[in-house]
Amino acid sequence: MKRYQHLIGLALITLLAVALNQLHVMPLAGMIFLVCGYQLIQFALSRPRRGVCYNSVLTPEQLQEFQDILKSFGSYGEMFKLLKGITDQEGGWAAIKQLPELLKGEQKKVDELNGELKKLRKQAQQFRGHTGVRWVGNVPFVTDDCARAMTSMFVLETAELGPKAMRQLNREERSHEGLIAQAREYLGMEAKTAMTGTEIPLPTIYVPQIIELVFAYGAARQYATVFPLGAGTVKLPRLKAGEDDFGYLGVGTAGMSAAVTERRVAAELVTFTANKAGGLIRLPTELEEDTFIPIGQFLARYIGRQLAKLEDKTMFIGDGTATYANQTGVGPYCVANPTYLKVLAAGKTKPSDATLADFRAIRPLVSAAVLSNMAANGQTAAAYYMHPTLEALLVTFNTLNNPNIYQRAIGGQPATLDGFPIHWIGVSQAYVTTAQISTYLAFFGDLSYWYLGERGAPRVEVSRDVFFATDELAMRALERIDVEALAIDAMAALQTAAA
């Protein structure tokens, strides 16, 4: 603005004169007089022409500013050439005139894409972690797609058995066709397609969600090391106790040329054998069209709980018999190796007989490295494993002088005993005041040194033959696992007396 102040002043005076004339405030002569008078003043104030009446329309300053404006247009020469090239293209100015409408259309597409992105984000919230299980009120839920897939499998296999089998799921025969159509539609099957077990797709893409439920319910998968077995039988090395320690070779320079003494490492091979485990599920529940998702959620949680319970029983109390496919868990392992076992004094066969000293006595039984090893979250990796009902006993250890021996879980942090975390498991001995001979009250140590070998992933399938005699349908969940200790001194156990 300051650069062209003389021309701007002339333009404003001219506009003022024209406005006054149009408003009939000033006649034409007065308008001319006002503009000319302003120019006379400008000539009088002009430095090179001060006090001289003008012989041109513009003052030297105004002429200079006008020349500057003309020079500035020179930089737009290339732009004008480009504009001319654009107008020579197909459509010319008509195409340019359509640009606003085209931009509006593109903006509409962008808004639609943003809307779809928001929908995808909402759907992605259902797939927390990498499996899709979400938690509502401390209850795990698989995705609706997983629940529908499991229910659809069940409905179609039931329908293949005939109307009688369908009536066991739903007494209203009028709703059977709707249920079957809904199941077919979800699994992408045409109505004319014959229903056979080989043609019904199994929900293999939803198996990770079942695995996450097992993690949620089971301590074995949460705290042990899950090791994928590359074959049906895999061998891994394990150090034995009693290996030689390193030592000094001499004092000062005496050790510079001394021979390095041999240190022996005693090792053995641990054999992992994939053992098949699982069970069958009957669903004696009235099924309606609007219960597809709840039924699927029930099946998913039931399978997750049962697999987790089986794994925990194998990990902690597997006794090496055929009941557990000859697998030995932490408790029986400690019984076979009494160095890592603490038994209550003779006559103390009740869980209520255990004292704080008994719980503390199993900590020194594990390797010192286990006690000092820290987990990634800053807590010690060593922890207690016991039945949640034992809390009734643990709170009695808090006295007036020592009120913080046992601490309940607070703010996502686990309960603790003497500062060591407590992980509740449902397969060890519960708290009772009656005799429970030779049962496991608690385990202590770092369970990550125990391996849960897994061959493949759990399989969920449907069978229509197993309950043929009773005209029922079964859903089967199977997995192949093995439990082995990869450190002989990582865990210890507390057991009630035998008599």
The main pleated sheet reads as: 7 strands, mixed
- Tally of separate helices: 16
What spatial form do the alpha-carbon principal axes imply?
elongated
Rg from Cα:
43 Å
Content-based structural category = alpha+beta
Which bin fits the share of residues in helices? 25-40%
Q: Could you provide a short overview of the structure?
A:
With 499 residues, the protein is α+β, with helices and mostly antiparallel strands.
Describe the structure.
The protein is α+β, with helices and mostly antiparallel strands and 499 residues long. Among the domains are: 2-72, no CATH class; 328-495, no CATH class. Helices cover 39% and strands 17% of the residues. The protein has 16 helices and 15 strands. The strands form 4 sheets. Strands 7-15-12-8-11-10-9 form a 7-stranded mixed sheet. Strand 1 and strand 2 (139-141) form a beta hairpin. Helix 7 (144-161) crosses helix 9 (176-187) and helix 7 (144-161) crosses helix 12 (292-317). It is elongated, with a radius of gyration of 43 Å. The protein starts with a helix and ends with a strand. Mean pLDDT is 78; it is low at 126-130 and 190-204.
